[in-house]
Amino acid sequence: MLLFAMMANGVSRIDTQVLAGRYRLLNPLGEGGAGTVWLAADETLGRDVAVKEVRIPPGLDAAGRQEVCAAALREANLAARLKHPSIVTVHDVVIEQERPWLVMELLSGASLEQTVRDRKPLPVHQVARVGVGILSALGAAHAAGVVHRDVKPGNVFLTRTGKAVLTDFGIAVVDGEITSGRTDHLVGSPNYIAPERLRGERGGPASDLWSLGATLYFAVEGVPPHPAETPIAAIGRVLTEPPRPPERAGALGPLLMLMLDPAPEARPSFEEAARSLADLTSGRTTGTAPHDPRPAPPSALPALPARDTAEPAAGRPRRRTALWIAAEVAGVLAVVGITFGVTFLSASGSTAAEKKVRLSENPGAFTTPVNVCALIPAATAARLLPSSPGEGKPTNDGGCQWAVSGAGLEVRLSADKQWGRSPRQAHELFVNRRNGVIPSGENAWSWPEIQAGLRSSRSTAPRTVKPVGDEAFGYDVHENRKTGRLEQSYVIVRVDNLVLDVGYSVVDGSKDGPAIQAGAHTAATWVANALNKQKAGK
Predict the structure, then answer these.
(1) How far apart are CA 300 and CA 29, in angstroms?
(2) Half-sphere exposure of 501 toward its Cβ, with a 13 Å CA cutoff?
(3) How far apart are CA 158 and CA 154, in angstroms?
(4) Class of domain 5-105
(5) Domain 109-178+190-281: which topology?
(6) Alpha-carbon dihedral angle through residues 258, 264, 270, 276, given to the nearest 10 degrees
(7) CB under 8 Å, gap of 24 or more: what pairs does 16-19 form?
(8) What is the distance between the alpha carbons of residues 328 and 161, in angstroms, rounded to a whole number?
(9) What is the H or E stretch that residue 157 is in?
(10) What is the DSSP letter of 97?
């Protein structure tokens, strides 16, 4: 039990250093206005974690303390629902001595703010890479109806492997959420708050884009776009003056100035910003034409406002044990923005031409849960597995598995609560699912039902597959430390308003990589055909 805390040299010191009987606080990693972040050992799972001690201002009455605790719980819930490689993972929340503590993944590195202040402004290509990661994270949050509202250099963490991670969802808002019950005051750093929010408006995805522009401006210039001596002066400059002309940003400068436009409707779309940033990471500067802030013609497609229409970008945790030991970004993904006129990647991959189509806003064909196990009958599954697997075994999240010694099939929904959503909403989920697949340096997984013990592996970037259903892409998982052979292949497929992950695993070496990839594609085709058959019969 936590007995008491005291302040020494400006940093909290904990005498009895174990929270909830499992998290042993070791030493403070940093401190801010909201509290202290500690290095801690999770003695139950045997891993290091970061624990955020939420500071409760002195003098608060019982209601005020309760509000602070509720806000911490809300932050944990929001962060936990947004699974994305560039969003910090929250493992747990603990209340000790009427004080909230957030248990998070331990990141090795420093904040963008500290990195720039301790060293110097970053080069353009590195800033663009940071922008791609955070833009993808914001796209996942916005697709889930969450607006961050506090994007700033202090809330962007740069790991030692080069990945940018978005942290601190403490003042985020959910689309449709009633906020009048919470304290109504402006929170955040004035230099990084969009003008419309400073004017008292609620703000939306375009506000987060402005804040990201200001954050990237600081990263490449070393100062915010509206330098000022005091917060009040900063507010005045943001509201009345244009940004300081960038001096070091080079080819990134025009995009930053567009992102910092005072009018939300004049800012570029997430899609345009993502394309430009992706070009800059590789030194290309001609991939996207300058954004035209003039009103679009009637045939143009407006940007999608935040709404609760899709789940987070990254794949949900597997039912098998999945322990992320470390992540190493091996490349930068181009982020596809979400628009009412949905953008499809062409068959030749994400670098070729794109086409715009409209998908239905009406509820799709699948309005009630589908029996996922019935999509692949036992006799059909036996065509891929070396011996008859029997009927599929339901999983606790609505998916299904077929397992034999050395190999297995799995089908799962890429996100919860897809029943009754529209095809457009499903496409948004599909795009976020693709953007969330980032090559990783090392991860570990196990699947006891196919005799796959804990093993080290690495995943690949998304790859183009032959057409399956309405949309599809694939990615693979290779054994990392021994043979390097491909052991798992996945195809993510959209059929109408459903998006599913279809996986084929062979761990005994009986099949080579192309055969495993073909098996996953075959299983995905079975799933898509079965769903289309159900759709046609409705």
Answers:
(1) 49
(2) 29
(3) 10
(4) alpha beta
(5) Transferase(Phosphotransferase); domain 1 (1.10.510)
(6) 0
(7) 18/43, 19/51, 19/94, 19/96, 19/101
(8) 6
(9) strand 156-159
(10) T
Q: What is the pLDDT of residue 253?
A: 96
Overall fold of domain 322-536: Protein Transport Mog1p; Chain A (3.40.1000)
* DSSP labels, 31-45: EETTEEEEEEEETTT
Instruction: State whether residue 23 is helix, strand or coil.
Output: strand
pLDDT in tens, 290-329: 444 333 333 232 333 333 333 333 333 333 333 322 232 2
Assess contact for 75 and 35: CB atoms under 8 A. Answer: no
Quote the tokens at residue 461. Answer: 């970037």
CA proximity to 170, closest of 93, 109, 262, 259:
93
Do 5-105 and 322-536 share a fold?
no
Residues written for the chain: 538
Name the nearest CA neighbour of 155 among 28, 32, 61, 270: 32
pTM summary value? 0.52
Q: Chain centroid to CA 119: how far?
A: 28
254: which DSSP letter?
H
List residues with catalytic annotation: 150
Domain boundaries, the chain: 5-105, 109-178+190-281, 322-536
User: Beta-carbon neighbour count of residue 525 at 10 Å?
Assistant: 18
Q: Find out whether 151 and 165 touch, Cβ atoms under 8 Å.
A: no
Beta bridge partners of residue 443, listed in sequence order: 457
Cα of 234 vs its chain's centroid, Å: 30
Please, how many CA atoms are within 13 Å of residue 142, restricted to the half-sphere of its CB? 26
Q: Which residue has the tokens 């099939």?
A: 409
User: What residues have CB less than 8 Å from 538, skipping those under 6 apart?
Assistant: 365
- Residue 145's pLDDT is 82
In one-letter notation, the amino acid at residue 393 is: K
Cα distance between residue 333 and residue 436, in whole Å: 9
